[in-house]
Amino acid sequence: MTRTRTDTPQVAIKGLYKIFGAQSKKMMDHVRAGMGKPELLAEYNHVLGLQDINVDMHAGEITVVMGLSGSGKSTLIRHLNLLIDPTAGAVEVDGIDVTTYDAEQLREMRRKKMSMVFQKFALLPHRTVLSNAAMPLEVQDIDQATREAEARKWLSRVGLEGFEDRYPHQLSGGMQQRVGIARALTSNSDIMLMDEAFSALDPLIRTDMQDLLLELQKELHKTIVFITHDLDEALKIADHLVILNDGAVVQQGEPQHILLNPADPYIEDFVSDINRARVLRVRSVMHEVPTGREVAGDVDANDTLESLIALSGGETDRAYRVLQDGQPVGEIDMSDLVRALVPRVAEGAVRGA
User: Fold this and answer.
1) Residues 229, 246, 84, 26: what is their CA dihedral angle, to the nearest 10 degrees?
2) What does the pLDDT read at residue 305?
3) Rounded-to-integer distance, Cα 212 and Cα 214, Å
4) Measured between alpha carbons, how far is 285 from 307 in angstroms, rounded to an integer?
């Protein structure tokens, strides 16, 4: 996925810290002096949840925040709609620092600017599918006919037409999550927050939901912040990938670049078991300047290396012209493809230790 990016991010996280404990503000002096998470907990019984987070999230893109359990990813997403107050730093939405908002301004932002899709669906069991999906407009005091018409539109869009009068317990897990997505879309918010939204689903249903999200995104161009601990999922859907460890950003950027250029041993370990042929795209390995050699055919810039291997029949002495939107943009040599399939060891990584 490649899109034209605006210069100004829709959401900008600047110097964000979160320390959990009774004297969190006082602990900032220790953290800024270099005290780490283990020392802060051992000496002062405070938990460093987030440390100097700086991330730009651009309009129309999917920003994926990932990391292992306890890395701070769910804490981070809850700062965007101020369900958690930061210890220090700013969260800017359309250029305004929302950490300065009063209670009424926050309610308005949560009602109209940001919607959220939860891991455990968060549907009200006593309400029908239609009533659950229409809730965002209900809290905005939109009349019943209007809000139900909008909810029906999005339920149909996510494949739930005909299920409007069912109750959550009558639906499968995947169907319940579709209701959650329809509810978020019914709000017509610019920004969607998705906290481990698909992790409770079976693998096949999870893949279907990822495909549905990408299909909707092609049409709607929402600003989506997606939390996951699954690297395959992150590489599939992310425009911008942010990897956390112990509450700090270890590396962020375009997913293909991170896969090919791990910043440190932690990232190298993260990407070491990925099926690179299935994930890497031709555009990430190609040469932009043609060599002039004879080519065996054309491939699309967004084709996977796996599909190119199949096209070549496994022959490594061929080159292909790379097209994007029907126009030549480069050339890929099969020998470069083979090199790209070997994981790069980040500087400082130790093997066999």
Assistant:
1) 180
2) 93
3) 5
4) 14
Percent of the chain past pLDDT 70, that is, above it, reads 95
Each residue's pLDDT tens digit, 270-300: 888 888 888 899 999 998 877 778 899 999 9
The continuous run of DSSP H or E covering 260 comes out as helix 255-260
Which range among 117-126, 130-139, 330-339 shows the weakest confidence by mean pLDDT? 117-126
Output 324-328 pairs: Cβ under 8 A, ≥24 positions apart: 324/283, 324/300, 328/290
Neighbours of 56 (CB within 10 A): 17
Tokens 């390995």 appear where?
Answer: 285
Helix (H, G, I), strand (E, B) or coil at 259: helix
DSSP class of residue 169 equals: G
DSSP state of 168: G
Beta bridge mates, 249: 244
Whether residue 155 contacts residue 216, with contact meaning beta carbons closer than 8 Å, is answered with no
Among positive and negative, which fits the CA dihedral 85, 89, 91, 97? positive
**Cβ–Cβ contacts within 10 Å for residue 32, how many?**
12
Strands 62-66 and 240-245, how do they pair?
parallel
- pTM higher than 0.70 for the full model? yes
Q: What's CA 95's distance to the chain center, in Å?
A: 21
Q: What is the pLDDT of residue 269?
A: 87
Q: How far apart are CA 66 and CA 73, in angstroms?
A: 6
Hey, which residues does 117 pair with through a beta bridge? 194
Instruction: State mean pLDDT over 153-174.
Output: 93
Place of tokens 């879309």: 185
Q: Count the Cβ atoms, other than its own, within 10 Å of residue 270.
A: 21
Task: Name the β-bridge partners of 193.
Answer: 116, 225
